[in-house]
Amino acid sequence: MKVKKGKLITLISCTALLASMLAGCGSGNSSNEGSGNTPKNPETNTSTNVDDPYKEPMEISIASWDIDSELSKLASDPLAQEMLKKFNITIKPVNTTWDDYAQKIQMWASSGQLPDIFAIDAIGTQYQRKWIEQGVVKALPDLAKYPNLEEFFKAPDIEGLAVDGKQYTVPRRMFPSVDWSALDRTVLYRWDLAQKAGITKEPETWDEFKAMLDAIVKQDSEGKKITGLTAAQVKMIGGFFWLYGNPLATSDGSGSDYKWIEEDGKLIPAVFSKNALPALQNMREMYENKLIDPDIALTKPDVSYDKFVSGKAAAVLIGGGFINFDGNVNTKRWEKAYPGVDITDNVKVLKPLVGPDGERHHAIFKTYWSESYFNGQISDEKMDRIMALYDYILSPEGNDLLTYGKLDEDYKIEGDKKVAIGDRPLHEKYPTRNFFKNLVSYETSDTYDMSNPSITNEKIRKEGVEYIDWILKNTKVPNYDIRLTYMSTPTKDKFNVLDHDDLLKVMLSKEPVDKVWEGIMKDYKAKGLDKMIEEVNAKAAEEGIK
Amino acid sequence: MAKMTNQVHKRSLWRTILQYKYFYIMVLPLLAWYAIFSYAPMYGVTLAFKTFDYREGILGSPWIGLEHFRTMMTDLELRRAFFNTIMISLVKLVTHFPTPIILAIVLYEFSRVVARRVFQTILTFPHFISWVVLSGIIVNLMSRDGIMNQLIVMFGGEAISPLVDENSFRPILYITHIWREIGWDSIIYLAALAGINPELYEAAEMDGANRFKRLLHIAWPGIKSTVAILLILHVGQLMSQGASFDQIFNLYSSPVYSVADTIDTFIYRTSFTTGGDFGYTTAVGIMKSFISLVLLVVANTIVKKLGEEGLY
What we know:
The complex is a heterodimer. Chain A has two domains: 58-179 and 367-472, Periplasmic binding protein-like II (D-Maltodextrin-Binding Protein, domain 2, 3-Layer(aba) Sandwich); 185-364 and 478-543, D-Maltodextrin-Binding Protein, domain 2. Chain A is 42% helix and 12% strand. Chain A has helices at 2-26, 67-70, 78-86, 101-110, 126-133, 147-152, 156-159, 191-196, 206-219, 238-241, 276-288, 301-309, 321-337, 343-346, 380-394, 396-404, 426-429, 433-440, 458-474, 482-486, 499-508, 513-526, 529-543; strands spanning 58-65, 89-96, 117-120, 170-173, 186-190, 227-231, 260-263, 266-269, 313-318, 347-349, 368-374, 411-414, 417-420. By secondary structure, chain B is an all-alpha fold. Chain B is 75% helix and 0% strand. Chain B starts with a helix and ends in a 7-residue tail after the last helix. At the A-B interface, helix 1, helix 4, helix 5 and helix 21 of A face helix 2, helix 3 and helix 16 of B.
């Protein structure tokens, strides 16, 4: 009897284990229940009341970076609740992280499990083109019904994203023009250490900058074996080193945003211009003279900020402009390391240096970064609801609400200024307002305003406002046609230029610069560089682009 | 006659299954695991002959014949990755495979059980730390202000950056791999050594065999068959685990791609960074599996020819 009981227990345990395994395998992504592998059949229409377009409640799934934590206080945010109620929607967050978002989204796309809205920077990539061609993402409807969105799409580089006259994405706008890209790659340097090393003038030219780094490194006034320039991320380095005479070669690191220039009567990617070699030589010289962090190839954001603030690096190349300067450098590190010491007296932001052509250049990217895409399977009704939400967030009413809170409750208008009421910070009162604002658009440029409290340190905010004013007046963006960057040709669609990888290779190689660069060019030619140039020139001539 | 034998065989098979039904039930979850995770996804290999279409999925994507394989022949980056995979795997096999055997023998020779356990625990510990964490530690150790460079400078040398140097990157892979796996891999050999009858040692000692002779004539023959089986398994996994993705991906950077980019890192970059066709990367994966299969068969044949028992 005992034996039989034992056998029965074994049998039950095995069956339960098997059942649980199979059950585990069977569960899919509930965000898209019922969706198969193929996004062929859009959701069927449900009845829509003409009088109240939002009568039908809707759940919208959104994949965005750290959305789980961003929306963890959604229920206690009265502003967000009001807005969601207005459109009769509930949000289902689908979390992605900064490390895995691109992989996750590509996997969801290939298995038909995409959420309704997802955030990624995919413009110009091979997979984004396929998503559009193969109906993975939904085209935006006629925007006449959404006046704020329609206006949003009038910026030239955003308008240029249309494929066969249709838009498939809402890019997150940061700046009103590419001149503002200067804020995306800024160099901070330790002015206190420079002064200790005998430097009295803030650097204006490359030679002066190099001389300053050299003086700081040689002086090593704090005895920390200080190194020269470090960077928050490897993919940022082109945003600085190309500025030595080849500014249009600057890239956001995606590999697909390379800009084209005309050289010797032919359109070529700016990275392969004859101006590349002097920039590379300048960079190598800096490296060999120990003016660049020898560990730059393996750098990480937090490590670089730590190095800079702790006096182990004389300068740091960062993204995110003065917002990052304020948050990651000042608030998180400087204020703790040097309490009571004003950072703006000791750390300066490098103004674009005068290059070999006598001009001051800064990095040139796009006016937006990352985009919202919409699952190709969602119904027209759901798309309409999403567009209405986006349009509202972009409207002056929605924008003011999400930036300043409620009129007469959180802020009042005095003349042409908005003045905060009360001491309670808005991010505590409305913890998800930034998420909703950034879901549609970053509008980073709004931060560079003395009445906008986003940059918490007022002195840094003031410097930021003055810096961008100075940039707009004193720097020059060379001519280029963004349509060439977006152009699709068979070879170009598969061609990537990861210039930061090439820069690192040149920087760290022991061979002469021209020889390394020749080898890199040879690799690109083997991947079809010449063929791509031919195709682009032919297509540009056909379309009348010069 | 043949039919009858077949029937008898069938009947006896069912009878055996019935007789050992509880064992068969116990093995069911394992079979289900293989069926679900190893065999069911195999339909995906057809992608190697298709161009992936998001709308149509794996089964519906259009066939393109051997185009991906033709592209592979002219892909210089893949050629480099292929060479690196073979090179790194082979050198790892040669440098790493004997080390746990040596360690197991050395540990076994410790007469003090406590010392043996302490060393075994210390040496096994790194195996349980992921490469993500370990690589962070290695990067720190080898950075300009890391302990390695501090020592070099202290002894009058010049600081180096071995992780971005083409000459030193691969040796770092080999050394760190041994460091991480030596303790863990020695466990099975220790178990094999423990399985040897102690009377054999005592008898040999009585006959005047010294420590080396005992090792050569008792310990080694005792673990030889285990070594053979593990060698076959290692060779079979040479292409996948030999050039470990986790290890390389977390340590490499573009200056060392020429010596460090392997098939796995190439597939990852092509699929997710540059967004290549999943069909192409599947074709590359198939090629890798095919080579693994050939290596496994070759290793098995060699081991059998050497008089040991093979896998099949």
